[in-house]
Design goal:
With 360 residues, the chain is α/β, with parallel strands linked by helices. The protein has 2 domains: 189 residues, Spore Coat Polysaccharide Biosynthesis Protein SpsA, Chain A (Alpha-Beta Complex), CATH 3.90.550.10; 121 residues, no CATH class. Strands 1, 2, 3, 4, 5, 6, 7, 8 and 9 form a 9-stranded mixed β-sheet that branches.
């Protein structure tokens, strides 16, 4: 049997077998010797060819496949952590291609910062085609809903809000001893909420711009609206768990008060942005798009995406208020969480009804 690896690459996946294949291919050509790292796939209830895809890599790398009933991203990540053997846990998305130096660069930064409390954030590029896409450009380089790399620099020490799942690594020991992901978060905030808890013990994140992966999956306009809606729901839960001003500021839940005025206009805002997105895409196909198309398109995106997130806040707030109402069997559980802190024993009481197993 091989000795314990230095690093465990943890990939949580759901019905993305074709994308996962490309991710695993990139891990087969890492500069680090393959006996120095392992790859663990947690299949969160897939119904596609995920198991067969993973099996096909059995002779090419140290790889382990585990299936679980669909439970969401936090549960899947915990499952991977408990199975991992490496000292470093590297969380990798199932639709990103790893640069050959990815694992080595994460390990290099951990060697420079051996303290248990130090995590590492890597850099995620877009493919050339995605970088030219108006929506992907907007969410990464303009209002930065997806990544916010333009505002940080290589080697910078960052706080809890930069522990981004799918491109970060940490000492596995720290999580096993101080706390793991809260399984109430099926999508969104599971990484930031964990990092906030750990920050009370000095947790911090070092950015390594040379630890590179590349996203190759296009996210559509409607998918992104849905993504922000779900993040709004998770953000509201996060804000109720921790009343700390930093959490409130990061989550932005004070915007929930705007929902009553936004609600009558919501479909119109989203429809206008969808139409603008489709128009610019059609012009791009005909090579008729110009720089002048971008400002009004970005304004439309901004209005629709902001409204989608606020809608998530409002719907989660409403559902939790209903749980508190007289006669609700979950009233005491909600109250326990409202007092602050993470109550894993009662985490299931705020299961987000619109949560999806699509991890990103």
């Amino acid at each position: 049997m091989l000795p314990n690896p230095l690093c465990s690459v943890l990939i949580c996946t759901y019905n993305r077998s074709a994308l996962l294949r490309l991710t695993l291919e990139s891990l087969c050509v890492q500069s680090l010797d393959r006996d120095k790292f392992e790859t663990i796939i947690i299949d969160d209830g897939s119904t596609d060819e995920t198991a067969k895809v993973v099996e096909s890599f059995g002779g090419r790398m140290q790889i382990r496949y585990e299936y679980q009933r669909n439970s969401g991203i936090a549960s899947a990540r915990n499952h991977g952590l408990f199975l991992a053997r490496g000292n470093i846990a590297l969380f990798q998305d199932d639709d990103d291609i790893a640069n050959p130096e990815l694992v080595s660069e994460h390990l290099r930064t951990h060697a420079l910062h051996p303290e248990d409390e130090v995590a590492v954030l890597g850099h995620t590029n877009l493919t050339e085609a995605l970088a030219q896409d108006p929506l992907m450009h907007y969410v990464t380089m303009v209002d930065q809903y997806l990544y916010s790399y333009p505002s940080i620099r290589h080697g910078q020490v960052l706080g809890f809000s930069h522990f981004w799942g799918g491109r970060s690594s940490c000492k596995r020991k720290l999580l096993l001893e101080r706390g793991v992901f809260n399984p109430v978060f099926r999508f969104g905030c599971e990484d930031i909420e964990l990092a906030f808890r750990l920050s009370r013990s000095g947790f911090r994140v070092v950015y390594n711009a040379r630890a590179i992966s590349t996203t190759f999956r296009l996210i559509s306009f409607d998918d992104f609206c849905n993504r922000l809606f779900r993040q709004g729901r998770s953000g509201w839960i996060f804000s109720r768990m921790h009343r700390d001003p930093e959490v409130q500021s990061w989550a932005g839940v004070d915007q929930v008060a705007e929902w009553e005025s936004l609600k009558p206009r919501y479909d119109r805002l989203v429809g206008a942005a969808r139409k603008a997105d489709a128009t610019v895409r059609a012009k791009r196909k005909l090579d008729l798009a110009t720089d002048a198309d971008r400002p009004p398109l970005f304004d439309a995106y901004r209005a629709a995406f902001r409204a989608s997130k606020i809608k998530g806040f409002a719907e989660q707030a409403r559902e939790q208020e209903e749980m508190r109402s007289p006669g609700s069997t979950t009233r005491s559980a909600v109250s326990a969480t409202d007092r602050g802190g993470v109550n894993l024993a009662t985490a299931g009481m705020i299961e987000p009804t619109a949560a999806s197993s699509e991890f990103r």
